[in-house]
Amino acid sequence: MKTANFLGKACLRLMVLGSLLTLAACERPFMDTVQSGYRGTGMVQVYNPRLLDIKTAANEVPVALPEAGAEGPKAGQVYKNVKVLGDLSVGQFSRLMVSMTTWVAPTEGCTYCHNPANFADDSKYTKVVARRMVEMTQHINSDWKTHVAQTGVTCYTCHRGQPVPSNVWFKADHQPQGSNFMGDKAGQNEPSAAVNLSSLPNDPFTPFLLGKENIRVNGPSPLPSDNRQSIKQAEWTYGLMTHMSTSLGVNCTYCHNSRSFQTWEGGPPQRVTAWHGIRMARELNLSYLEPLTDTFPTHRKGELGDVAKLNCATCHQGAYKPLNGQSMLKGFPELAAPAKQAPTAAVPAQVAKK
What we know:
By secondary structure, the chain is mainly alpha-helical. It has a domain at 153-333: Photosynthetic Reaction Center, subunit C, domain 2. It has helices spanning 2-23, 49-58, 75-78, 90-104, 125-143, 145-148, 155-159, 206-210, 231-248, 270-289, 312-316, 349-352; strands spanning 32-35, 44-47. A two-stranded antiparallel sheet has the order 1-2. It is globular and about 80 Å long.
């Protein structure tokens, strides 16, 4: 009898332990859902309250310094070698420089970009890059309202108090062991955080956020001569969509109609915003970041010698809108100044109709 009781208790302990191990991968606590489409379509957003609280805390906007007046001499008249923002007053200019220091290099301070013996000196690569990033920020706020609307972005949107944003990407070596009889594996089955450690291609960005490959799963026609979308190409698309979903902390139905993921008919308006965001990221990578390749030192480049580039996660960092939609730009209107840059891409007819 004692032996039976002992075995019974042992079995019970094993069952409890097994249950705990089985449930270890489950989310906790119970999920919250928000319906975004008609009933029965499965168009709901699923949120974990515990993780949502963490994300909310991580997306708080820092306190802004008191605004400075526009009166008085201009920064370009007082300081040497001010190639951007020279039309600001000395007070406005100093306020922005101090703010940028806290946004980007709070530990290193002004000397992260400047030569302390001569602030006008351009010998530090970080100063050259920072100047170009200010121009890029102005360009986003002026010419990409189709994606950032009136909310806009600042240096803090991406950097969050770090010299290098947490979420950047480099080109990946698809065949680190060299060629073999399998051909180009496209980085599949090489776990990458970019695609949630799945078997999808480990670099879904180069084809779409540098190149202009079609982002689709199905071709426009069933005929072989017109349908050039292969399973391999579809997996690149799935990789990018996985990244976008994770970057924004949303489900696929945040942008897509569950009746047909391909069609634009009846889709949420966020899909149009995302369309512009993809093209914005591509243009910024090609026009602002890639041209800085020779400026960056070797230790700041990827394994293939390319510079860090941006994607959806660079700004969003797990939030459906960067900083949960809070605008810092209204406190720093100088970062919204018009910047003469390349025009944005034309909107396709099927998008323009929406």
